Fold Alpha/beta hydrolase.
Amino acid sequence: MRTLRVAGAEFDVRDEGDGEPVLLVAGSGAAGRVWDLHQVPALRAAGFRVLTFDRRPLQETSSPPDPRALAAELSHVLAELGLPGCRAVGASFGGEVVQELMLSRPELVTRAVLMATRGRGDLSGRTMADAERELAAAGVRLPPRYAAWQRAVLNLSPATWRREDELLDWLDLFEAAERAGTAPVPVPAGGEPADRLAALGRVSVPVLVLGFEHDLIVPPWLCREVAGALPRGRYAELAECGHYGYLERPAEVNAALLEFLTTAA
């Protein structure tokens, strides 16, 4: 692991493997290691060099995340690593960051995969952000078992809930993370996300947008809008998975990821 100081932030960067570089950008509040279980091994086995990171201030502050600011910082990280361009993969908030990287520094992204991404705000997202702000202002800490159940409801699909042995593993994992203080902490949005759909018409590289059928946090129709706004966008929807689709259905996600990243432009 290498620590880089750029634009007033510290990035702990894990740089693994050889070959063409792929930058993985996790969602808000999630650590870069979220990719380690499934996506990093698959990409390395396919011959890619894989970059994941943690931005220390983002993990330690309750300030609203800003995808444009993080994209600007990542451009400095890529420069420090001597990378003139790379493939990029982002999930949820990470997908918004990759969008902004393609818009602000188009030469840095040769193709991209955006999972559970949005190009504008919506009522569901506003309501969730308002609720999280109210909860944070009240100083309430949910009991670990309840927090684990809530996280499972929001992020897993009904298909996983029907497989009770598998669901029990998820609930145990979420509860253990809550008790250890390592669970992702939702960071309430600071306001209505900017509508970037028109701006995405400037993106010239191929982009695959993956939606997850039962995603409550970023519903699939918002992902479909992003794909439709991109001149070279392509949309695919994976069945029987929620917002954690890349963890719930890793084989299907990895197959789509690798097929797209290895296809000639």
Observations:
- The two ends are 31 Å apart (CA to CA).
- The CA atoms of residues 119 and 145 lie 33 Å apart.
- Residues 126-180 form one domain.
